[in-house]
Amino acid sequence: MDFQGLPQDFGMPLLDGDDFFKNLDTMEQDFMIEGEIADYDDDGELDLGGSEGDDDETYIESPDYPDTPVERLSRQEQLRMMHLRSHLNQLTEKVKHHQYMTEKTRDELKQCRSKISELEAERNQVRDEIQQKESAGNQSAIHRLRSQHDRLSQEISDEKQIEKLICDRLDKEEYELNKVEVERGKFLLAEDELVKKEDRLAKEKTDLALRRLRKEERKALQAEKNMRNKQRVQQEIMKERQRQSEYRARNAKESHEKHSRFVDDTMNKLKQRQEEENNRYKENMQRKMDMLLKLKSDIQSNRENLKALHARDKAAGKKEEQKLEQVRQKILDEGGNPDQILLIQKRISDFEKQKSNFESEQMEKQASIMGKILLEEERMKRRKQQQPLLWDDPKREKSKILGPPKKKPLKTFQEYTKLSVEEDLTLDLRDSLDENTQEKLDDEKLDTADTDAVDRIPPPREVESSDSSDDDDMGETAVDLAKPEFEGLWDHHKPYTVPKDTDSSPLKTLGASKMDKAILNQVLEKHRAGIVVKQVAAGREFSGCPFYSKPDVIHFKDFDVGKSYKKKVTLTNVSYTVNYCKYIDITERLKDFINIHFDPPGQMSAGLTCEMLVTFKPMINEDLEGEVKFLSQTGPFSIPLKCTTKKCDLSVDMDTIQFGTTVIDETLKRTFTLTNKGALGTTFEFFKLTGMKAKTATSAQTSLGRMTTGVESTQPLSPEPTEADKSKKETEEKKTEAEASKVGEESQAAVTSEGQEGTQETTEGQTEVQPEEGEAVGDGSPDLLVSEIGDYGTLDGMKAGPISTGEIGPFSSTKLEIIWNPSVPGKVDSEFLVTFSDPLSERIPVRALGNAIDVPVWVQRQTVDLKICMLDRLYQDTIVVSNRATTALRLKFEVCKELRNHLELLPKTGYIQAQSQFSAQLKFLPRQSLFEEGGKYFDKETGVLEAPMTIRVADQTAPVPFTVTAVVTNSDMVFDTTDINFGDCTIYESTKTTIKLTNKSILPQEFGFVGHPEYVEVQPNDGFGTLLPLETIELDVIFSPKKARDYKFELNCKSLINREFKIQCKGVGVHPPLDLSKQVIHFAATSLYDVSTAALHVINSHTSMNEFTHPVPRIGKGEIAPVGPTSFEFVVPEGAPVTISPSVGTIMPGEKTRVQVRFAPTLNEDEIRTEAVRMATRQMEQQADKEYKEALKRQKEAEEAQHAPKFKVRRNYKKTAPAGGGKKGAAAAKGAPPKGKQTPGSTMLTVTGPQPVVPPKPEEISKDSSAYAAAVGSLLRQYKGKFQSLTVPCYVASGETTNPGELPYSVSNTLYLEIHCPTVKPPLVVISDSGRTVTDFGEVSLGQNIFKSITIQNISSRTQELSATALDTMGPFQVMNAFRVLPPDATHTMLVSFTPNAGRVFQEVLSISCLTAQLHISLVGKGVSPLVSLSPAIADDGIMDMGAVLAGEYLEKTFKMQNTSSLSIDYSIRLESLSLLRHAHAQELPKFLEGKSKTLVGVQNNNGQNVFDLVPAEGTIAPGGNVEITVTFAPDHASDNYSDGVKIELFGKEECQAFQIKGVSKQRIMFIDGGDPIKPEIESLAVKPTPQLDDDELKQQMPSVLMTFRSVAKDDAYQPANRDILIGCVRTMAVSQKKDPPKPGYRDKAIRNGEFTFENVQLLAPKGFSIDPQKGMVEAGILKPVTITWTPPAGYDPNQVMEASVVVTLKGDATEQYKVMLHAMVVSE
Question: What is the average per-residue pLDDT within 898-915?
């Protein structure tokens, strides 16, 4: 039966919304599922495992297909069956509906008729009641009943009308029911056939499902087997891992148990060692506290002693003043001039002091030179010993000559005698050392810091120092200087006892004689005493002393018997490798006095030290010498030891004293110094020897010893010390006693010299009286011999001074005096002798020479020294002439004729009385002509004048000469210039000019600038001062004009002698157009890299050119500056740390401009680079040294590894040697070392030294490098401060400002700003990031939070309280922790976060403030806005159109999201339909009411699933990378308003992209898009009922499309209006998912194109409408535009609206019709 024409035959069109189409859709979906199943069956991509095991079974079955193609229903037949079933269902529904309506209408009719019957019965009842009431005459009841009767009648009539309507409707329903049943009966046969086909189709689907189920079961079985294989492999892997983990755990447990025992032992040892260290630390601290307390008490006692000494010195000073006053009074009583005499004595003593000091300095220098010479000689000796081949040695040359062969010793004892011979040679060499050389070395290398005794005070000229202490020679016993002031750590030293050799029994040898045994025992003892092992390192054999001692000679100097002395000796291992040190013995003679405390240190590496304590307790007062013997691994060595007693070392500074020529009866005194450089004091005796020689010459006794005895017997001849001498000696002894233990070397030397000077001054006052006392003693003596000796010894006038005997202490000196008072003219040669009580001290002879002449008249001063005299100045002096004659004499004073104009003696003639004095006046007035007239008496170059003067005495042939000496100099002062031009100077400033003033005289001159105007100033000291001889000083002349004019004046400089020196000066005063509010700016002390600011104003006060009312700007008397704008420009010197802003500007008259000066000191760039190079070089050297040491270590390890077998063989040989013996063992012992030497690489030195370092160039160091920053930090810590004064010119010009540097200024109007810039060391520095003050966070994405730490340190000496400036509260930087008080050298770490909120560069300065400075840290970071681009790009309106898709299907599109920034980006895609705010937005008014919408969410699926989906929704995009996003559009029902908002968020915060996705869902593949909107975009969620309409109603309710045309009227013509509508065809999934080609015999009819047709288009032409094209074909997935044009027809009324409609028929999977309504109108332009 053919069903192709069923819809047309039945005349029932299939419309939207009918159940027929719903059933059709259901059938189509089932059919598509079947197609999917077929594709799924044939798809080979479903692989659920597969090929894990080759032994698995594989089921291969061919699919079950029908036998013939006819058995299977075609797709078209299935569609027809679906259409037929749908139509039959509709007919059945209609039959049921009409049956229901018929039954319902019949029930209503029944109810209506029953109600009518009830109303009629009620009406009849009311009629009866009315009759009754009428009969009763009840009118009120009658009226009520009548109205009730009328109402019931009306209701009955209404109900009858309703009954009629219900009957009509019942008839109509029955008619429709019959009609539908008739129509339903027409399809009975077709329905039977349809049921059969449906059963057949159901069976086919069941078979298909069974086949698919079987295939799925096979796949599932295969997948399950593969899963089991995987699980089995995984279980095996897990078992293997578990086994390995158990093995590791077991090993770890065993290792832990093994090491825990060692760790426990180690920890116990560490704890015990820590406890011992703590106890030792406590003991040391307690000892130090005791020592400090004792030191405090000693300091207190020293203070009290010093106070007592000060009081004693003050009393002694007063006593000395009293004695001096007594001497002065005595001289006055004798008629002398005490001032002159005392001045002469003082000058003489000063000269002697200077002389002695000079001599002592010379001796010290000589001693140092000698020490250097000796040291150089010792070095040369050592060098000769170390490198003997560099010098010729005849012994070595002689040794090269071969002599006769020597007999070999017995091989039996060869091994033992070898070592003993070497030891004997070593000891003999040590014993043969030069004692003098050793003593020199001892004196040079003594270490005074290691001794326990307190060092004594050395003499002033002593170079060497003593290591030991001794008692004070003055006899004090209160303080024991031999004992230390406080105990040291060595007091608790435990002595080390030398272990005795346990095996001291003689060696038992079988078959040896008694002599052989004795020799063997002796050799073994030597062998044990000096076991020698050769030490070879790096291929070199060590030779020499293996340990160096400090000091190298143990010397106890100047010891006292009965006291104990300690000395600490440090031994240093100077051998190549590890060594041992063992104390052996000490010299036998020293064992009774020396005690050695030495703990063997055990194994010592090279360079390590150990200590030895030597205690010396002398019992006899003798010099001792010996040595301390040690034994090391490389051989024996010894340390020399010396003990010397106290000795005297006496000497005089001069052995010949010259008195020169003098006149008889004059008294001359000469002194010399007796010095004791030794530590032992002695008594001395000073006497004259010449007279005794003369007396004993006539006797038989000629021996010196008898003369000495004679001198000793004539002891009363020497003057006895007076009471003053005794008190002075007692004072000296007390001072020495008090200061020996508490005062230093210099103070004691000063006390000694003061005492001697006082003694000398005391004796000088007794000079005149002493000879008389001596004579009286001589006369009163009963011994004639003594009297004769004294008389003969005084004939030449020579005698010893008042100090002839006394004591001289250790390391002290005294002055002895010789007095000559000649009474007989002639030459005198006398000899004096100094003897000592010390028997070991030799006598010292002193010789005195002089020449005496006899003149009756003589001048007291042979040379009259006028010192330095100026030209044209008068100088006077007195010439005193003495007469020893008994008569009066006439004197005549003569001056040489060359100097008579300059020198004059008054009176020229005079008489001198007998035995009296005459005074003459000397006048000296040097004139300028002295340079020409002076002749030979005057030296023009030096200005020295030596004028011989003569005194003529009557009756005397020989005149009395004397000399007048003077140094003549001028009084000139010279300027370096004669004119000073100050130039132009503004009235607000000062000009300074420096001049030089030179004193041409050799005398100091006082000067002063007087009479200069008030606008001139001379500095320093206001132009007053003193010029030293030949000195040149610089003076600043400051010119400060008060007003604008020309200045001309003189500077007048006057000297103290009223000489004037003038300079001509001139200058110009300038009144500039501008002035500064400050001329000088004083900045506070500013730290490096800190900033200080100051402000000033530039003022333009020039508002009028009237010079009579106020001062006007001008240069001198020049033109007046114009009134108007005036420009200025500050020019800062290059490289200055100062900036001025604004530096250029223009100021109007009467206004001012504020200028800010900024001082920011920094370090010099060259210094930073130099420091960076130095630090880099040092680091490179350390690295090279480290690599060198590592290479040496590796080489040493390699050598030890090579030598390991050799050591093993030698160790075995030592054990077996005594048992084996014989030649074989000796040969093996001899042969072992050569074999070791022949080992390859054993002696080759491959590491030569550290690699040379090439320092980087300063210009190669960049400012961004770490080396540069580290150099800045290093220089900041070393900075000492700096003061800099800058002068900045401010150029002024009239007119507007030009470009900087092009201001047409006048130099005369220039203003100057002086800036004082003190720079100090910063208290705070940054130590993190190599000291950089710029913290760069780099590029950070917006919204990210990055932390960085900055560490600062307080490098000042005071505690700093830190605070910081507030950062921008809206900025990205923030300090996370608080500041605190920072002690010196402490650090503080602050945490700074950076959270950018915009895509730009951020920079802020964090200023950390303390009390005196600020530390500025620049915070830099870049906020990178993560840029994401979409490709293909979204439309400009931000809408992504997904196109159209059938309801129930889905559509996919992709776009790429690319990261165009330099950071990795974390993105997430959010849909607005999933936003929590969606429900809030849903409460707003819709767009068609409000006009706009805030949400992008449109129609969604009814099943709750998202209509749009984007995958992947989250992820990370690398810099420059991209990710592909798949958008899926899957609607569940038809709608044109699907939309959703998409937001792409980066890092979960910032939204970078937002757009809207739209899509359309259709029920049919063909649709129309375009036209005017006729319904809202909001879709109601309510269910629309489906009305039952006939064909006419369905035609009337076809979908409509509204199009409005507006034609523009222009110039009485109409322009055509065009509109386009789009006709599209949806591409369904059935086509897109079909992957296999169709089988033969089948035709894929699902792939079709749509067609459209506009019907009855000819009816539109009269109204002016035209359509192009009117019909056509639309391909799947394409939108085809159709253009509709409206041109107003002729005679059209523009005030009317043209309306028309046309039907469009769309043919696709079904035929549809759309009604296109056309509205056209004319609008004006």
Answer: 89
Residue 1237 has pLDDT above 70, yes or no: no
Residues 483, 474: Cα–Cα separation, whole Å: 19
Three-state DSSP string of 1182-1211: HHHHHHHHHHHHHHHHHHHHHHHHHHHHHH
Q: Is 1213 exposed, middle or buried (0-12, 13-18, 19+ CB in 10 A)?
A: middle
Nearest alpha carbon to residue 581 among 549, 536, 553, 552 = 549
Q: Give the model's confidence band at 997: pLDDT under 50 very low, under 70 low, under 90 confident, else very high.
A: very high
Q: How confident is the model at residue 614 (pLDDT cuts 50, 70, 90)?
A: very high
The SS3 assignment for 832 reads: strand
CA distance 1395 to 1371: 8
Q: Which two tokens stand for residue 252?
A: 């770890």
- Beta carbons of 1505 and 1532 less than 8 angstroms apart: yes
Calpha distance 1540→1555 (Å, rounded): 9
1022: which 2 tokens?
Answer: 């206001």
1039 falls in which pLDDT band (50, 70, 90)?
very high
pLDDT, tens only, 1271-1297: 888 888 888 888 999 999 998 888 877
CB within 8 A of 1498, min separation 6: which ones?
1537, 1538, 1539, 1540, 1558, 1577
CB 881 within 8 A of CB 891: yes
Helix axis angle for 723-739 and 188-334, nearest 10°, is: 170
Secondary structure letter of residue 699 according to DSSP: S
- The answer to whether residue 498 scores a pLDDT higher than 60 is no
| E strand or H helix at 1229 | helix 1222-1237
The 10s digit of each residue's pLDDT in 1131-1178 is: 999 889 999 998 888 888 888 999 999 999 998 888 888 888 888 888
Report the length, in residues, of the chain.
Answer: 1725
CA atoms within 13 A on the CB side of 1641: 5
The region that residue 539 occupies, defined by phi over 0 for left and psi between -120 and 50 for alpha, beta otherwise, is left
- Contact indicator for 565, 645 with CB cutoff of 8 Å: no
Residues 6+ apart with CB under 8 A from 1304: 1293, 1295, 1298
For residue 280, what is the enclosing H or E element? helix 188-334
Helix (H, G, I), strand (E, B) or coil at 1344: coil
Coil/strand/helix, residue 331: helix
- Closest C-alpha to 980, from 1049, 1065, 1059, 1052: 1065
pLDDT tens profile 645-684: 888 989 999 989 998 887 777 788 899 999 998 888 899 9
Side by side, which strands form the sheet with 1465-1471? 1439-1446, 1550-1562, 1535-1546, 1465-1471, 1514-1517
What does residue 369 show for φ and ψ, rounded to 5 degrees?
-65, -45
Mean pLDDT rounded to a whole number for the chain: 77
**Rounded percentage of the chain residues whose pLDDT exceeds 70:** 75
- At 958, is the secondary structure helix, strand, or coil? coil
The set of long-range contacts for 169-173, using a CB threshold of 8 Å and a minimum separation of 24, is 169/105, 170/102, 170/105, 170/106, 170/109, 173/98, 173/101, 173/102, 173/105
Instruction: Identify the residue whose tokens are 């077709």.
Output: 190
CA distance 241 to 1147: 90
Q: Give the strand pairing for 1387-1394 and 1346-1354.
A: antiparallel
What does residue 1026 show for φ and ψ, rounded to 5 degrees?
Answer: -130, 130
Summarize pLDDT for 1291-1350 with one digit per residue, the tens: 888 887 766 667 777 788 888 899 999 999 999 999 888 888 889 988 887 777 889 999
Cα–Cα distance, 740 to 455 (Å, whole number): 10
DSSP three-state, residue 617: coil
* Cβ-contact 1351, 1432 below 8 angstroms: no
Residue 1036's H or E segment, with its range, is strand 1032-1039
